[in-house]
Design brief:
28 strands, 330 residues, mainly beta
């Protein structure tokens, strides 16, 4: 297995994302003291393109005064990204240009914009694609979601419909203006970003316990998945939402992050609180095709490289960011 890694010393990983423009770059959002106190750091990492070095290169590191829990690249500019913080704010950073960093040019010390409205931690962030290039979606532990225009200082809409902490929210990549959210109230909510009343289109009990993660299929516009603290991964079809269309059991520990593959409609990855990442293939049954125990703490971040078939990245509380291709997909 080709494997590259980086240690974010004294910073614990919460989220990471591959660049939509450059196959070798990824951002990692981290926090001090497991996100309970202290500041946060955003790392811009680079893969060795030849793959003959097991270490990811650190191109730059940006600091924030509170923990960083999520990160999203701008879909139309290769050097801009946004982060979500424990102080209830969003930060938009520019100058995240790997070539400039490699050449030793000065990197930004502060974000160009700071958006502050949430009253508690912002735990999830998504930057709109295709139909929503300028739209940022934030999900917070204050039980609200907010839609932002990244060119404005104030949110466009506040969405209210969960009764507990919101852990994740994602735009549909295939249906305009539709997004999903999950919460520790166990519910999966669907929303129209153009509904300025801020009420959900639909709310279903996705898990009997906390719902911690969701993601959309990149191939079937009707399919999305949720993961919960019950160790279950459930698939949902927008045409028949009364019950889930499939269920996978990943063990007794929580499913913290899900990522549908952009390379195969049947492949799904999960990050679990048993320190593992798991690869699932819906065409090959309900058992995980591969279980990777590369971490020694909770795995919180997970992302597929859109440029390289089946390449996956993970990060966790053990301060490790790993990039590899699962053996079962080679």
């Amino acid at each position: 297995m080709q494997f590259q890694s980086h240690t974010t010393t004294d910073r614990h990983g919460y989220s990471l994302r591959f660049s939509p423009f450059e196959a070798n770059y990824l951002l990692v959002a981290t926090s001090q003291l497991y996100g309970l106190a202290g500041g946060g750091s955003l790392f811009l990492l680079e893969q060795n393109p030849n793959g003959d070095d097991q270490k990811l290169g650190e191109l730059c590191r940006l600091e924030w005064s509170d923990g960083l829990f999520d990160v999203a690249w701008c879909p139309y500019a290769p050097d801009i990204a946004a982060t979500a913080s424990g102080d209830g704010s969003l930060q938009i950073w520019c100058g995240l240009d790997g070539e400039s960093a490699a050449d030793g040019q000065q990197m930004p010390k502060q974000p160009v914009i700071c958006l502050q409205e949430h009253k508690n931690e912002v735990y999830s962030l998504d930057w709109g694609e295709k139909w929503n290039y300028h739209s940022l979606l934030s999900a917070s532990w204050d039980c609200t979601l907010k839609l932002w225009d990244c060119n404005r200082q104030h949110s466009i809409t506040t969405f209210v419909g969960h009764n507990d902490l919101i852990y994740g929210a994602k735009f549909s990549p295939l249906i305009a203006n539709l997004f999903a959210s999950v919460s520790t109230d166990g519910h999966l909510n669907l929303w129209n970003s153009l509904d300025f009343a801020g009420k959900p289109l639909m709310s279903i009990e996705a898990h009997a316990s906390e719902a911690l993660s969701c993601d959309w299929s990149h191939f079937d516009r009707n399919v999305l998945v949720t993961g919960g603290s019950d160790g279950l991964i459930r698939g949902w079809d927008l045409r028949k939402m009364r019950t889930h269309v499939f269920e996978l059991y990943s063990g007794e520990f929580a499913v913290r992050r899900l990522a549908c593959s952009p390379h195969s409609a049947a492949v799904l990855a999960s990050a679990n609180y048993d320190f593992t990442t798991r690869i699932w293939n819906l065409e090959r049954g309900e058992a995980a095709q591969e279980i990777n125990a590369q971490h020694t703490e909770f795995v919180c971040g997970l992302d597929w490289n859109p440029h390289r078939a089946h390449q996956l990245a993970s990060c966790g509380w053990d301060s490790l960011a790993n990039v590899y291709t699962p053996q079962c997909l080679i």
